[in-house]
Amino acid sequence: MSNLNVKRTYSISDLAREFDITTRTIRFYEEAGMLQPERDGQVRVYTGEDRVKLKLILRGKRLGFSLAESRELIEMYDPSSDNTHQLKALQRKINERREGLKQQLADIEIMQNELDAAEERCQVALKALEP
């Protein structure tokens, strides 16, 4: 039998070790319908496609995408096409995320200024109380 015809499979512990996550995390993504491993009795058997999906889920999480957003992007994947639709959707999500982060940064700067002003008022009030 040729090795070219043998599909590589992974156990849950293989994937957990490779991506430095817990098996519970992987089961969470299964329960969310993001991964559908095959079963060999009680043992989960993951395909290369499951591995790629998990990699994309974790990448989406690092980028700040919700699980629903990651699911949407993954479901657009179509190896028979050039994936233009998926890539454009990803680009839109990245731009939306970037704009959200810019707004958060502006909000943080405002909050820091307000904290500085409150601290300054406290210091003035404490100084006025000194004998």
From TrEMBL:
Residues 9-76 form the HTH merR-type domain. Keywords: Coiled coil, DNA-binding. SMART domains: HTH_MERR. Residues 91-128 form a coiled coil. This is MerR family DNA-binding transcriptional regulator. GO terms for molecular function: DNA binding; DNA-binding transcription factor activity. It comes from Marinobacter nanhaiticus D15-8W.
